Amino acid sequence: MARNGIPALVLAALLLPAALSAADPKPAKPARSLPDDPKVRLGYALGLDVGERLKEIRNEFDLKAFEQGMEDLLKEAEPALTPQEAAKVRQEFVQRYQAQKAEERAKMGEKNKKEGEAFLAANKSKPGVVTTASGLQYQILKEGKGPSPGPRDRVTVHYKGTLLDGTVFDSSFDRGQPATFPLTGVIKGWSEGLSHFKEGGSGRLFIPPDLAYGERGAGDKIGPNAVLVFDVDLLKVEPQPEPTPPPAPGKAK
Predict the structure, then answer these.
(1) 169 is catalytic
(2) Mapping DSSP to helix (H, G, I), strand (E, B) and coil, where does residue 240 land?
(3) Whole-number Cα distances in Å, 214 to 46, 225, 232
(4) Is 138 labeled as catalytic in the residue annotation?
C-alpha cells in the first residue's frame, strides 16, 4: 500500500491500462463450474485479475455501472462520459480517497499513541523490565555469556515482532531461518536494545514509536505510533572495525 495515499495497485487500475497479473496463486476454494470454452475461461480469469486490483475499493463504486462502462468500451459504444469527464471523476475519487485514508490514519495514530503510553507506563513496573533514558524498555529472559554488540556490529538473531494486540507482523522463527544484519541498518530501538543483550542470550524489547516507525508506520500491519514488542535470541555477534578516519590536512597518507 502506498503510504498516506491511495494504494499503488488501485492507482494502476484507475489511471493506467489494465494488465495481466502474474500473482502467486492463493489456496484453492471450491471451484465455480465453467464451460470448457477458452474464451469463457479467459474472460473469467481477466475478471479475477481486475477484481483483485479493485478489491480494496469495492465499496466505493457501483458494480453494474462498472460492468456497463467495460461493455461500452469493449463494444465501442458511445460512452456516457467524455474522456475529460471520466478523468475528472477519477481524480475527484483519488482526492476523496486520500483524504479519507489520511483521516483514518490520524485517528489510528491517536488511538495507538494513547494505548502505547498506557502499556509502557504499566509495563515498566513489571519484574525484570528496565526502562532506559530514551524510553526503550527491555527484559533479559536468558543471560548470555558472550559479548554485547556495539552500534556498528553485525548480529545474527532469531526474533518475533508483535503488536500490543498480539498480531505477529514478522518472525524469523516462522521462516525457520535466523537473520543477519548490521545494527546500523535497523530501527533505533533494536540498535539500542541489543546493546543490553549478550551473545547467547535472549530477551524482549518494548519499543516506543519514536524508536520504531513513528507516525508513518510500516507496511500494512504496523500502524502509526505503534509500540512494537520483539522476542529476540541473540545468536552471534560479529564485531566490525571502526572506520579509519581520513588523514589530517597537510599530513602524508
Answers:
(1) yes
(2) coil
(3) 39, 5, 21
(4) no
Query: Is 213 a known active-site residue?
Result: yes
Give the CATH number for residue 220: 3.10.50.40
Range of the domain at 211: 127-238
194 lies in a domain?
Answer: yes
Q: How many domains does the chain have?
A: 1
Per the residue annotation, which of 119, 173, 187, 210 is the catalytic one?
187
Q: Is residue 78 part of a domain?
A: no
Sheet strands (E) in 29-153: 129-131, 137-142
Which of 97, 197, 206, 213 is labelled catalytic?
213
Handedness of CA 199, 204, 210, 214 (dihedral sign): positive
Q: Catalytic residue among 206, 207, 230, 233, which?
A: 230
Which of the residues 153, 170, 197, 207 is marked catalytic?
170
Give, for all 253 residues of the chain, the pLDDT tens digit: 344 445 554 555 445 444 444 445 555 565 678 899 999 999 999 999 999 999 989 999 999 999 999 999 999 999 999 999 999 999 999 999 999 999 999 999 999 999 999 999 999 999 999 999 999 999 999 999 999 999 999 999 999 999 999 999 999 999 999 999 999 999 999 999 999 999 999 999 999 999 999 999 998 899 999 999 999 999 999 998 777 677 767 655 5
Q: Is 61 a catalytic residue?
A: no
Q: Which residues contact 218 (CB under 8 A, 6 or more apart)?
A: none
Q: What is the pTM of this model?
A: 0.71
